[in-house]
Specification:
Blueprint lengths: L8 E2 L4 E6 L2 E6 L1 H7 L2 E5 L6 E2 L4 E7 L3 E5 L4 E6 L2 H4 L3 H4 L7 E5 L11 H12 L1
Antiparallel strand pairs: 1-2, 2-3, 3-9, 4-6, 5-8, 6-7, 8-9
């Protein structure tokens, strides 16, 4: 089973949110990076762009496939992980250490719609069968 970290919020589309105060760090899960294979490009929004829960905000491309990135929460992009522009493969090395965007959360109650670590593990096990 792929690595899952307690205390994060998980979406069925395999993005996670790490919440720190009013901000959320959004990235793809270890399960997702493992399924994609070697990541070669990350398409990210611009700073000050608005993201909406359930809406696409970018894409991750690997040697195998391209996959849309779906925001698990709504908010304003306050930072993008610029390291991914030159070295997108760092997501493969540690998906949780290498978030994609940082957003100022506009509605923290949206976190209630996401899974905790245990529920996400169960979801991934069902999806694999």
């Amino acid at each position: 089973m792929a690595k899952v970290i307690e205390g994060l919020y998980y979406a069925e589309s395999h993005e996670y949110v790490k919440v720190e105060g009013e901000f959320g760090y959004i990235g793809i899960t270890d399960y997702a990076q493992n399924a994609l294979g070697n990541i070669v490009y990350v398409d990210m929004p611009d700073t000050d762009d608005e993201v909406e829960a359930g809406e696409d905000f970018g894409a991750v491309e690997s040697v195998k496939a391209a996959s849309d990135l779906t925001s698990p929460v709504s908010g304003t992009v306050v930072e993008v992980n610029e390291a991914l522009e030159d070295t997108p493969e760092i997501i493969n090395q540690d998906a949780f250490a290498n978030w994609i965007i940082k957003v100022e959360l506009s509605d923290k109650t949206e976190l209630d719609n996401l899974m905790d670590a245990a529920a996400y593990v169960e979801f991934c096990e069902k999806e694999a069968h």
